[in-house]
Design a protein that fits this description.
This protein has one domain: Orthogonal Bundle (Arc Repressor Mutant, subunit A). Helices cover about 65% and strands about 10% of the residues. The chain contains 6 helices and 2 strands; from the N terminus they run ααααββαα. Strand 1 and strand 2 form a beta hairpin.
Amino acid sequence: MEDLRQSFCSCLYYSANAFSRLLTKMGDEEFAITGLATSYGFLLLTLGKQEGQNPSSIAHTMQLTPSTVTRLVEKLENKGFVRRESAGRNTQVFLTEKGEAHLPVVQKAWSNLYQRYTELLGEEWSKNMTGELFQAAQTLEEEGTSV
């Protein structure tokens, strides 16, 4: 019997989602050392690079909706990793001491994830594919297809 996956292999949507599910599973396994899901880890990494961002800015960086970022921030705030400050009508998000102290383990998880997939796929291919996927995402976003 023909492997039905072969009938979908020429579909970008199918292939991208299959790849995403596998990479997400890998990310969840590597980020387990942080005690946080991958998306929470990337939010901490985002704030580690530039604190005081508002949820909309974080959403843009992470390619998420502002409401999703608000939910992530609330959970991280409840865990003591971030704090929110109101600045007029805007809210800014900052790492707490606990969040800053947790950054090294989050960075280690990110590094472990990178090492894991580059060992499997090859470093050059991984870098090229990452660049191509990012460019494709930007092109779709520019055409009005946003998260």
